[in-house]
Specification:
about 475 residues; mainly beta; Porin; 16-stranded antiparallel beta barrel; 2 helices
């Protein structure tokens, strides 16, 4: 099976590269004044009304021209979608409800959009770890092995009222690949599918129903969190790899009901209740309703943005408290917030800064309550070089104060079990190359290092033998 997958990925890369090269000679392939982008390239500056947003800075990235169907505010400021635009850019399908026609890079029928993407890549650590794992780095976790991270499909209908009247909509996302292991609900849903494959699994991260009246949308179902900056969908991030904050200190999904209210073009509020962090069934028997809130602001000139997301929940802790030396599940209160600011420094350069704090308090642990903390600071600099090229840098500091949050995941990973009490740092430098309207290539180099807070703390890289790691990675994304 492994040989077949590698062969399929290699053939996909070869086909994509050939298609990309062929399109270099097309006349007027990239004319900024007239270019109409595919749906996944829309300008996004905060998590979507439909899902986690696709990242695009408020400048014209290579192949990432702002969509005339959506505001071009900063990502930290509005709750948008990386699904297809509300109105087709192709005049042949301008009406949504007149039958089934292909348009805008998505097939549309009665207001529904169907689309997806294929993402595959490879990462290699300089120290060539014997366990073939890139330490505590998830998603692109395998060393020197081609991975099909995401084969993604979605069905979407936006509940768009234009500010007046009512509308209905919803969205379903399903994908297969190595990323699915990290995106599943720990209680219920995918956990009940009896998936035995070590690396390649399935996930159903979103299925929800929307009802909108004027500027208010009510969402019910299973949906991505609005917290933070990085997202699960590959089309939503500048880099192939992910930050520690995204991997270990933020929820991925919620199941519940939320209201999304747009006060104006500058302000948007999301608030509601849910079952817990990455939790679908109430397996802990607490029947608790947990609170989720998100407030986003964009300046009138769309050069500044600020967003604050907060989650407060009660749920059992899974997996065990590795860093505290105990096993089993414990009732816990969880509180976390993410503050994201975005500044358009120039027409080409955008700066994003994010601060997170995560606290989990275990109740009646050894006769008293025990609190664990994680917090950090992320910064991103994103620069447009040309219509086809852009460059980015990510700097991160993340502290796992008690050595409980950061863990090596996956069977056979020497870093599994955690216990890394201390500070994690990483610097990532990357490029985005857009050879055609539907192909994105993202090479990057990354250096991670760990500073333990006390003696006797294990090492998180090179199968437990090193406190730092230099890694090269590159992936491609083909959308349809």
């Amino acid at each position: 099976m492994r040989t077949i997958r590698i062969a399929l990925i290699a053939l996909s890369l070869a086909g994509i590269t050939g298609s990309a090269m062929a399109q270099w000679s097309e006349p007027n392939l990239r004319q900024p004044a007239s270019y109409q982008q595919p749906a996944y390239e829309q300008s996004m500056y905060q998590r979507s009304v439909h899902q986690q947003t696709a990242y695009q800075p408020p400048i014209q990235q290579p192949g990432f021209a702002p969509s005339p169907q959506q505001p071009t505010g900063l990502r930290a400021a509005s709750f948008m979608t990386n699904a297809a635009p509300t109105t087709c850019l192709d005049s042949s399908c301008a009406a949504q409800d007149v039958g089934c026609v292909p348009g805008c890079g998505r097939h549309r029928c009665c207001g529904f959009k169907v689309g997806g993407w294929l993402e595959g890549g490879i990462s290699a650590a300089a120290n060539s770890p014997v366990d073939r794992y890139n330490g505590v780095v998830t998603f692109n976790d395998r060393d020197g092995e081609a991975q099909m991270n995401q084969m993604w499909l979605f069905l979407d209908r936006e509940a768009n009222t234009g500010g007046y009247g009512w509308a209905w909509g919803g969205r379903v996302d399903f994908f297969y690949g190595t990323d699915a292991r990290f995106t599943q609900a720990v209680d219920g849903l995918e956990a009940n599918w009896d998936q035995q494959e070590r690396f390649y699994q399935c996930a159903l991260p979103q299925f929800y129903f929307d009802v909108a009246l004027n500027n208010l949308t009510i969402r019910t179902g299973h949906f991505f969190t609005p917290l933070g900056y990085e997202v699960v969908p590959a089309t939503g991030n500048f880099f192939y790899s992910h930050s520690y904050t995204h991997q270990y200190a933020e929820p991925f999904t919620h199941t519940g009901i939320v209201g999304i209210y747009k006060f104006s073009d500058q302000w948007k509020l999301t608030t509601g209740v849910h079952r817990g962090i990455d939790q679908f069934d109430d397996t802990d028997g607490r029947n608790s309703l947990n609170w989720l809130g998100h407030l986003a602001w964009t300046s009138r000139d769309e050069r500044l943005g600020l967003a604050l997301g907060i989650n407060a929940s009660e749920q059992n802790s899974t997996p065990p408290l590795a860093g505290l030396g105990a096993s089993g599940n414990y009732d816990a209160n969880v509180f976390d917030y993410a503050l994201v600011g975005t500044v358009k420094l120039t027409d080409r350069l955008t700066w994003i800064v994010q601060h997170d704090w995560f606290q989990r308090t275990y109740l009646n642990y050894g006769g008293h309550n025990v609190a664990i903390d994680g917090y950090g600071l992320n910064q991103y600099w994103l620069y447009t070089i040309s219509d086809r090229w852009s460059a980015g840098m990510r700097l991160e500091w993340f502290r796992d104060h008690d050595g409980v949050l950061v863990r090596g995941l996956g069977r056979g990973n020497a870093a599994a079990g955690g216990g890394f009490a201390g500070n994690f740092y990483e610097i990532t430098l990357g490029l985005n190359w857009k050879p055609s309207s539907r192909v994105l290539v993202r090479p990057e180099i990354r250096w991670d290092w760990f500073d333990a807070s006390r003696a006797g703390v294990p090492q998180p890289y090179d199968a437990g033998d090193s406190n730092d790691q230099f890694m090269f990675g590159c992936d491609f994304i083909l959308t349809w």
